[in-house]
Write a structure and sequence with these properties.
By secondary structure, this protein is an all-alpha fold. Helices cover 64% and strands 0% of the residues.
């Protein structure tokens, strides 16, 4: 658990540091640009870049909540799962997103949301089911974030992040058939 908390804090320090550095350097250029060789690094860097203080604060709060829940459930295994979600969601956005510079941690946040939501379904373990039910109760409105709505918001990052979370939950929590 201790390593998980450190990973969460490091992520938050990097996104906040990147935000303030972006006043001095054009860091937005490292965002994810679909189907562009120069946009490939954005698969990794985009979650650390934010366009405004409100964008950063909103993502920091959501990320912290979902990452802490994941840390409680997964312990030190959470980091590898988050990296896999980030890579899958970023790669899907790079392959199928609209031509724009996609930035922000919301794709990763939607991955965490979907992972926590579907881990209960796939694992059939009570602790995951309780978390899934809690998410449905408190955060069900998030699902609308995967639909095109507000110009300038990467709904594709949200959608492909969500899909990445479902994929990673399925990989790690597929039902195992036991022999009698």
């Amino acid at each position: 658990m201790n390593q998980s908390i450190k990973a969460i804090i490091v992520f938050l320090v990097i996104i906040w540091g990147s935000y303030f550095l972006s006043f001095l350097f054009p860091l937005q250029q490292f965002g994810l640009i679909p189907r562009s060789i120069s946009g490939l690094p954005g698969i990794v860097f985009a979650p650390f870049l934010h366009g405004s203080l409100s964008h950063l604060i909103g993502n920091s709060i959501s990320f912290t909540i979902f990452a802490l829940v994941l840390a409680l459930l997964e312990g030190n295994k959470m980091f590898s799962k988050m990296v896999l979600m980030l890579l899958i969601g970023g790669a899907l956005t790079w392959l199928m997103g609209r031509s724009a510079i996609h930035i922000g941690a919301s794709g990763l946040i939607f991955s965490l949301f979907a992972y926590l939501l579907f881990a209960g379904w796939f694992s059939k373990k009570i602790k995951y089911i309780v978390v899934s039910i809690g998410l449905i109760f408190f955060y069900s409105g998030m699902i609308f974030g995967v639909l095109p709505s507000t110009p300038g918001i990467s709904w594709e990052g949200h959608l492909f992040g969500f899909i990445a979370g479902v994929i990673v939950a399925k990989i790690y929590h597929k039902n195992k058939v036991t022999k009698k």
